Amino acid sequence: MISAFEHFRPHHQELRTRLLRSILALVICSTVAYIFKEQITQLCMEPLFRAYPELEKLVYTKLTEAFISYIKISILTGCILSFPYLLYQLWMFISPGLLEDEKKTAFVIVFWATMLFVSGGLFAFFIALPQILKFFMHYAGSNLIPMPKFGLYLTFVGRMILTFSLAFEIPFLMVMVGKTGLVSSQYFRKKRLWFYLAILILAFMLTAGDITATVLLAVPLFFLYEAGILVGSILKKTNKRPAR
Q1: Which long-range contacts does 183-188 make (Cβ < 8 Å, 24+ apart)?
Q2: Which pTM value belongs to this model?
């Protein structure tokens, strides 16, 4: 048992180092985000003010609501900012056990996973969120005066950005599942219609039933799904190349 523990100790220490660096990066990014909390929250509120120009301010009804909301949005921003570094640390932990070709493949996957994550967040904020807010705010009128709460609105925006960012990771997850051998790209191709239906239902739920926003989310996810099938097929053919 001692020898086995000694054998595992270098990996344990490596994992500990990577985790500490990841936590430190998250803390630093969240701290920087907290310094600019007012600018970040103002940026988050702009789509709401554009969707309903009559609305000039948000409200909060609990003494701690503003403070806790600032903490939440800072941590979320820190997660987004540190995401590439977190993926890099994961890759560095895995790469010593990979072959040289596999290391290059892992690096490419990490890069594109980061790009998909960022693209999902940008898509949510600049395209989907304004459409969804217009849908919600059009119910306001002479008998209904909207008074959105500061904390709830920031939570709504943060969850939407994070949800879209993770949703855009579909090709990355498909490739990872294919690399493990659990599911092949051929399976995703055969079950395409069922996955399309699942994407439509997911998009409909995420956009609270707004047809326009549902289409805005579902269409790019369809393309990303097909991209995942294509990349999985390419990697499968590459792995089957005969050794010389």
Answers
A1: 184/232, 184/236, 185/228, 185/229, 185/232, 185/233, 185/236, 188/225, 188/228, 188/229, 188/232
A2: 0.77
